[in-house]
Amino acid sequence: MLLIVFSLDPITAIDIDPPHAVVIGQEAWFNVTLHSNNLVNPEEYSPSYGFVHFMWFFEKDKDMQKKPLLTWDYEVAHTFSIPGTHDVSVTAISVIGQKSTHVTVTVYGWY
């Protein structure tokens, strides 16, 4: 019998890469980068986080009236309907923990 053991790296931090400009009615793409403080040389080691899912909140969704976007993808698109400043937050959840972060984006209207 062959036993294969995988070790998972903890997610110690995450970053959201927001788009440079956001306009109402157009898709805005957001990317997530996960980080681990594994002591192995990062140039020679690619961390393994296992299955990670992401819970995203856009616009005024934190009022708990709307549900978050739940996905397995590191990249998501969202179309804003209201101009102004919006907080975009994401939580990355793996089998050994979770981390959250947020960014503020300015959504421009058509003038």
Gist of the model:
The chain is an all-beta fold.
Descriptive terms for the model:
111 residues; mainly beta; five-stranded mixed beta sheet; 47% strand; elongated
Topology:
Blueprint: E1 13-17, E2 22-23, E3 27-35, E4 53-57, E5 69-71, E6 75-79, E7 84-94, E8 97-108
Description:
- The chain is mainly β and 111 residues long.
- The chain has no helices and eight strands.
- The chain has a five-stranded mixed β-sheet, with no helix packed on it. A three-stranded antiparallel β-sheet has the order 1-3-6, with no helix packed on it.
- Strand 7 and strand 8 (97-108) form a beta hairpin.
- The model has no long low-confidence stretch (mean pLDDT 84).
Please tally the helical runs, counting DSSP H or I stretches of 4 or more residues: 0
Taking the sheet with the most strands, its summary is: 5 strands, mixed
Helix percentage range: under 10%
Oligomer description: single chain
So what's the overall shape?
elongated
Task: Tell me the strand order in the biggest sheet.
Answer: 2-8-7-4-5
Uncertain segments are none
Q: Helix and strand succession? A: EEEEEEEE
